[in-house]
Amino acid sequence: MLDPAQLAALAAVHRRGSFDLAAAELHVTPSAISQRIKALEEVAGTLLIRRGQPCAATEAGLRLIRHHDEITLLERQLASDLPGLAAGPATLRIAVNADSLATWVIPALAATEGFLFDLVIDDQDVSQDWLRRGEVVAAITSHPGPLQGCDTVPLGRLRYRATASPAYMNRWFPLGATPDALVQAPALTFSDKDRLQDRWVGRQIGDKARRATFPSHRMASSQAFVDACLAGLGWGLNPEPLVQHHLADGTLVELVSNSPLDVPLHWQFTRLAAPALAGLTRAVRSAAARSLVA
To answer: Which CATH number covers residue 217?
Structure first.
């Protein structure tokens, strides 16, 4: 039988990156955290935490963290079915892309009681990897899966519009978004994982086999993308819900009229935790139906 306090210590060290921060989260001393990790490693017979800056779980450690998360959710579900068992809010760690968080996810979280949400923000093209490694129990991802031991629910498509300010268009695209202009005009990129602009440009220049090259600002913020486009700093693929009123009043325009890029999104979660996540799954599907393209 694995000790729940030791598993909690393992998860806290990995997620907070240090023994001191894990101790503060669990309201114990760093020495107590160290003792719990050592005892758990002795039971498991293998290294579970790589000490460093930051500390990080090994592959075996991640498997135990996933077990801890699933057991915690199952116990919460049991407590909800048996009112005599006291149950506080369970911490739920999920991976979500920044644009979904900025447009439609928050209402789903707000409609679900009984959880403290620990959100991992990452690109929709790689968020599934967090679930595969066992670091989250659910993820919003562009990959339909299926992953072993997980269920997948299709949510719809988040529509993006390639937008810029009228002044930016006059400066960089006086003849329209031609292939020559697209490889010279400064764009906006969320991070090195962000391929949306590349995909859109590749579609426009008719060369999908080769990654288009163009100058780009990097800024990891959905709202900053919109603000930068409004200020004329660059052009970018913005979620339609964030820019539709700017397109309506003319403060932003599309680089190419009626040329959206749709990204399919899916809600994936571990099958073992599905009963405990049922309420959140319903809220996610409902919020997605109101904001995403079917």
So the answer is: 3.40.190.10
Task: Count up the domains in the chain and report the number.
Answer: 2
Compute the distance between CA of residue 89 and CA of residue 107 in angstroms, rounded to an integer.
18
Please give the residue range of the domain that contains residue 24.
1-83
Could you tell me if residue 93 is inside a domain? no
What's the pLDDT band for 66 if we cut at 50, 70, 90? confident
> For residue 69, what is the domain's CATH number?
1.10.10.10
Mean pLDDT of 264-272: 94
Q: What is the 3-state secondary structure (H, E, C) of the chain?
A: CCCHHHHHHHHHHHHHCCHHHHHHHHCCCHHHHHHHHHHHHHHHCCCCEECCCCCEECHHHHHHHHHHHHHHHHHHHHHHHCCCCCCCCEEEEEEECHHHHHHHHHHHHHCCCCEEEEEEECCCCCHHHHHHCCCCCEEEECCCCCCCCEEEEEEEEEEEEEEECHHHHHHHCCCCCCHHHHCCCCEEECCCCCCHHHHHHHHHHCCCCCCCCCCEEECCCHHHHHHHHHHCCCEEEEEHHHHHHHHHHCCCEECCCCCCEEEEEEEEEEHHHHHHHHHHHHHHHHHHHHHCEC
The confidence band for 209, taking pLDDT boundaries of 50, 70 and 90, is very low
Residue 255 lies in a domain: yes
Query: Residue 240's closest CA among 166, 159, 165?
Result: 159
Which one, of 142, 138, 120, 118, lies nearest residue 268 by Cα? 138
Look up residue 83 and give its amino acid. P
pTM for the model stands at 0.83
- Maximum CA extent, the chain: 71
93-109 pLDDT, tens digit per residue, is 999 999 999 999 999 99
